């Protein structure tokens, strides 16, 4: 998961990206005073001393989404002068387009609704769900500071108090009027055995959306008098002879601009899911990726490439959110069974999207099928699955149409129906309220293969717990910080809706605080 700048192009070529990715990295390399590229492997320090700075501030934030706003707010509150560069004509990034969750535990909102959830309980869930490759120290920090993060969100103007809590359902995005609900795999068997389930998806009002997160942050930035320069993407970082980052070049509306950072630059440009070369280079499941991308359209990897061009290491570049909605689409759909082309169930159908996606993407073939009964389909009326690929009167007919071994499939369905009669999912531990016999006579089949999965990148520049960007020797690059999906922090596996926003806001705040505290 850690790729050095020297072997990055080699890795990309092996992944099939080839010279097009080399061009993407080269385009982000610093240029000399004459305008010629210094080259990917060349001297990255030459331009800084010759630059005529267009603007300067203590802290320069590159990217005005959730992480960038959090960094700018905290740096300004710490007494620093701050400038923000944003590539688009409006702020928000993927934060403003997200499904509306911030995953937090042990908060005042949970206590308001009489819900028990300690920091330790939150950590037990999050660390287990993230898997063995996750950064447990970063997860611990997020959990320890979660109650304080909630109060900070409220202080910034987010309204959670006017909504209600949903302590029963596993919610999808955009739940206007609901301010707290389940948003991860808290109720799934593997995780309810290690942590007491509690709803942790905090959704600001009035619409429980990313817009209700970002607009208060944007307003706070404006109230603090922080300058935001729109339509100006960062191009490359500048450093001095010691290697310290001293500023950034940007592609301004009227030509190139050079913004000096007296204390530090914070890269918060998002992930790389909108960069086809990078996506193809690092996505770990070849030929098993759906077309849907969870992005606002500008996660082009530029912040990651800029960091790599000055020697930054990366973390978790092969970590992705791979999701497919069943229970968060419509809960009655979880009464069906999800089977592979081999005719075997592959997961508990009531699990969170990313765990469903993982099961699909790791199935023996790309084709998987959700089979539900007539009553469940009618109960789920309006679910966004479209029409079934076919309906059938028997399990044998389904086996014939899918082209799987009828005996294997019939045995698996018989075992499942027997489990329903016992009231216990003996295979995957699905919640008993979703156990329903698959009756012969009226069964419906939906194709949910890898083409049905959505994708988001989770890796980025390697940072420490102070949000310093690290080089390949594990040393902090002086004057350079990163947060949000520009950085590879807590993943592991994607643990549930709002886990990314918890990461985005926590480390965005830390980056702003630490950059402002630099002694130069």
Extended strand count: 22
First-residue to last-residue Cα separation: 32 Å
CATH architecture of the largest domain: 3-Layer(bba) Sandwich
- H/I helix tally: 16
Oligomeric grouping of the chains:
single chain
Protein described:
The protein is α/β, with parallel strands linked by helices. The protein has 3 domains: 5-23 and 54-96 and 213-321 and 454-516, FAD/NAD(P)-binding domain (3-Layer(bba) Sandwich); 102-209, no CATH class; 325-452, Succinate dehydrogenase/fumarate reductase flavoprotein, catalytic domain (Flavocytochrome C3, Chain A, domain 1, Alpha-Beta Complex), CATH 3.90.700.10. Helices cover 30% and strands 20% of the residues. The protein is built from 16 helices and 22 strands. The protein has helices at 5-14, 19-27, 66-77, 108-112, 119-130, 136-144, 146-155, 189-192, 211-223, 276-282, 302-309, 353-361, 374-379, 395-402, 406-422, 499-516, and strands at residues 55-62, 82-85, 102-103, 164-170, 178-182, 201-202, 227-229, 234-239, 245-252, 255-267, 292-293, 314-315, 320-323, 337-340, 368-373, 390-392, 443-447, 454-457, 460-462, 468-470, 476-482, 487-488. Strands 1, 2, 7, 8, 9, 10, 20 and 21 form an 8-stranded mixed β-sheet that branches. Helix 14 (395-402) packs across helix 15 (406-422). The longest helix is centred in the C-terminal third of the chain and has 18 residues, at 499-516. It is elongated, with a radius of gyration of 24 Å. The relative contact order is 0.18. The model is unreliable at 1-22 and 27-46 (pLDDT under 50).
